[in-house]
Task: structure prediction
Amino acid sequence: MAVKLTGFQIQSISTVTALYFLIVLGGLVASTGSGLACPDWPLCHGQVLPNLTPSVLIEFVHRLWTIVVTALVIVTMLLAWKRYRWNKVTAFSTLTFMLLLGQVLLGMATVTTGTEAIVVTAHLAVATLVFASALTASVISIMYPMTEGHAK
Result:
């Protein structure tokens, strides 16, 4: 029997998937030593589009993907509020957004502190919380589906 996902569930799964790949990209940044390839933030070498050497490309793609993920998280949160009003899905979608804001600030601190170990560790820890929160919202929306027009 095929499962028919709602628009919100598809959006939520897409957000979780994008977050997962953002964490993988972050791992690539760390493992290749590309974390300081762009020594300033939010620009890279004072430019919106820097000269793309291999290490700059890795760091820059991570930053660009963060913008995509941020948009997905915001859309997911807004759709949750529209569809669910206030329940666990809305709570976790909102928590995901709030954690992501902290995560972006930690990303900035990672660059501005010269990839200090404690900041990089906090950046990964909060990334895991962002992912877990988004995944929880997604799973709850699938486990307890609501028919259209029946927001609780």
